[in-house]
């Protein structure tokens, strides 16, 4: 393991998915090779990787090659710890925040000039900034902003260097008359534009007015709602061809048309079936659902579906597999209905109670089992089906009354060695307290590293036996009904009742914290 760990030239570390041994090795011996850090303080982060401990133990100036930093679920208190130190990352080029404390802007201004990529949740970050602070920025992504903020952004972003701009959740209008704003200044060298517009009504003419000032676009993605002209393929073709010629590589859109009852579906399909749209290395196919939604395929095709869903939309592509190939989350509800095409790229599969008695061959004719990574089921585990899932690592038993009922058809000596993540979620209204003994359950899933048990309060004695039974477990989440006194005794009780956990003045190999009724437990190196 050590030889493998030390064999790479660059390292990416996510604090949310770390074993302590690897965490210590990387941050002690390999700081000078780490190029990307994802620092998080959510409930799944162990105590040893807490941001306060990280800042106390490590000198940030030693991360001499760090280029990308993501701060996830960091609240205002810990931003105060990070901000004074962030300028020590001398080579930092990319920064991502998922929260935006009110004081962040001015605290970050000293590092902004060295960034080339910035991902933020809110455009309020820029309200008091001028162009001098972001003069080297090439890529900017904002989750949400108002039209007023968008106007300000376009006034301060570097016109000559900004190449990619995205608003991923929505542009909101706070202007009383809901008028499309006028942009006096735009980054004319922009190559990639992604606009998700949450606005009452936009028109094609308004979009043309903006896009005509961005003559170097190669990738365009727009989502919004508006008038029927947005579905005019001929007008789009004339404008795009006149403005960009052959330079536009990708054009994706998703439009909701308010006055769709007056739309001529045949005319729409005919306009978007012209050579301009289809005679490409990657054709620009569109689909229309007859209810005012028109979108490009596969970009805006659904990624989640039931297996018995029948495709009813009209489309310009003859290959309907484009729709099934975009599905990565599938629910099999009625296995007697075999779809026209197999779902070949599904990562997450759920089988409903009505379909559980289906044969493995029947299920495999619906979905490619070899690609499944996460499997969710609420009744008896189908052993034969699991054995066909070569890449399965995450098993979720949901809304179950009893583990006994879920496992009763399985030979108790069988092993599901591929499972690394196991969720056991009981029916909160109809669960049974007498359940499978840990001495039987744990050998069935010998390689589980992350375990979650909730839906009913798990007894402390049961948790202790689970801890010793799952020898490879490094994270566990358990629902409890412990009072304040019991929570205060948790460390002593777990140490006393388990063989795996140790805690004394010299060393400890576990930590925990409570999230309301949930116990989050983290375990690292187990003493021999």
What is the 3D form?
globular
Main β-sheet description: 13 strands, mixed
> Strand order across the biggest sheet?
1-2-3-4-5-6-7-8-9-10-12-11-14
> What number is the mean pLDDT?
86
**Portion of residues in helices?**
10-25%
- The helix-and-strand class reads alpha/beta
InterPro entries: LRR_dom_sf (IPR032675)
Notes on the structure:
This protein is α/β, with parallel strands linked by helices and 528 residues long. Among the domains are: 115 residues, no CATH class; 89 residues, no CATH class; 119 residues, no CATH class. 24% of the residues lie in helices and 24% in strands. The strands form two sheets. A 13-stranded mixed sheet has the order 1-2-3-4-5-6-7-8-9-10-12-11-14. The chain has a ten-stranded mixed sheet with strand order 13-15-16-17-18-19-20-21-23-22. Helix 13 links the parallel strand 17 and strand 18.
A few lines on this structure:
InterPro entries: LRR_dom_sf (IPR032675). 24% of the residues lie in helices and 24% in strands.
Secondary structure blueprint with pairings:
Blueprint lengths: L1 H4 L5 E4 L5 H10 L4 E7 L10 H7 L10 E5 L3 H7 L11 E4 L6 H9 L4 E6 L16 E8 H10 L7 E9 L19 E7 L5 H8 L7 E8 L6 H12 L5 E8 L7 H7 L3 H4 L6 E4 L4 E5 L6 E3 L7 E2 L5 H5 L3 E4 L15 E4 L8 H5 L9 E4 L5 H5 L6 E7 L2 H5 L13 E6 L11 H7 L5 E5 L5 H10 L5 E5 L4 H5 L1 H8 L12 E6 L2 E6 L5
Parallel strand pairs: 1-2, 2-3, 3-4, 4-5, 5-6, 6-7, 7-8, 8-9, 9-10, 13-15, 15-16, 16-17, 17-18, 18-19, 19-20, 20-21
Antiparallel strand pairs: 10-12, 11-12, 11-14, 21-23, 22-23
Helix pairs in contact: 15-16
């Amino acid at each position: 393991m050590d030889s493998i760990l030390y064999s790479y030239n660059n390292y990416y570390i996510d604090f949310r998915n770390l074993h302590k041994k690897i965490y210590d090795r990387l941050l002690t011996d390999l700081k000078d090779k780490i190029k990307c850090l994802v620092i998080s303080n959510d409930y799944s982060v162990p105590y040893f990787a807490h941001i306060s401990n990280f800042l106390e133990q490590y000198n940030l100036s030693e991360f001499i090659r760090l280029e990308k930093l993501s701060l996830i679920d960091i609240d205002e208190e810990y931003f105060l710890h990070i901000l004074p130190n962030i300028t020590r990352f001398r080579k930092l080029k990319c920064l991502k925040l998922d929260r935006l404390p009110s004081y962040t802007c001015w605290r970050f201004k000293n590092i902004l000039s060295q960034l080339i990529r910035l991902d933020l949740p809110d455009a309020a970050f820029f309200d008091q900034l001028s162009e001098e602070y972001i003069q080297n920025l090439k890529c900017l992504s904002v989750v949400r902003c108002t039209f007023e903020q968008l106007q300000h952004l376009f006034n301060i972003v570097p016109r000559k260097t900004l190449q990619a701009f995205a608003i991923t959740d929505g542009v909101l209008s706070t202007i009383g008359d809901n008028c499309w704003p006028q942009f006096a200044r735009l980054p004319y060298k922009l190559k990639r534009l992604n606009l998700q517009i949450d606005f009452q009504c936009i028109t094609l003419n308004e979009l043309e007015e903006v896009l005509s000032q961005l003559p170097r676009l190669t990738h365009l993605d727009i989502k919004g709602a508006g008038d029927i002209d947005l579905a005019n393929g001929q007008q789009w073709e004339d404008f795009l061809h006149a403005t960009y010629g052959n330079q536009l590589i990708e054009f994706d859109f998703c439009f909701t048309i308010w006055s769709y009852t007056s739309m001529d579906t045949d005319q729409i399909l005919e306009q978007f079936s012209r050579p301009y749209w289809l005679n490409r290395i990657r054709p620009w196919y569109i689909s229309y659902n007859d209810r005012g939604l028109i979108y490009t395929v596969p970009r805006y095709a659904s990624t989640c579906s039931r297996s018995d869903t029948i495709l009813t939309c009209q489309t310009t592509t003859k290959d309907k597999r484009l729709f099934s190939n975009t599905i990565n989350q599938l629910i099999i509800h009625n296995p007697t209905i075999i779809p026209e095409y197999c779902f070949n790229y599904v990562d997450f599969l759920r089988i409903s109670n009505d379909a559980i008695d289906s044969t493995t061959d029947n299920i495999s004719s619906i979905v490619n089992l070899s690609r499944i990574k996460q499997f969710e089921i609420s009744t008896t585990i189908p052993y034969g089906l699991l054995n066909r899932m070569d890449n399965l690592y995450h098993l979720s038993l949901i809304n179950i009354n009893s583990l006994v009922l879920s496992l009763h058809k399985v030979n108790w000596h069988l092993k599901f060695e591929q499972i690394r993540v196991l969720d056991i979620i009981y029916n909160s209204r109809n669960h049974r307290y007498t359940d499978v003994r840990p001495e039987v359950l744990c050998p069935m899933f010998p390689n589980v590293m992350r375990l979650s048990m909730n839906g009913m309060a798990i007894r402390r004695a049961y948790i202790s036996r689970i801890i010793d039974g799952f020898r490879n477990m490094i994270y566990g989440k358990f629902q409890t009904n412990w009072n304040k006194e019991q929570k205060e005794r948790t460390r002593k009780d777990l140490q006393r009742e388990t063989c795996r956990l140790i805690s004394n003045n010299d060393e400890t190999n576990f930590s925990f914290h409570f999230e309301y009724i949930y116990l989050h437990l983290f375990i690292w190196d187990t003493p021999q």
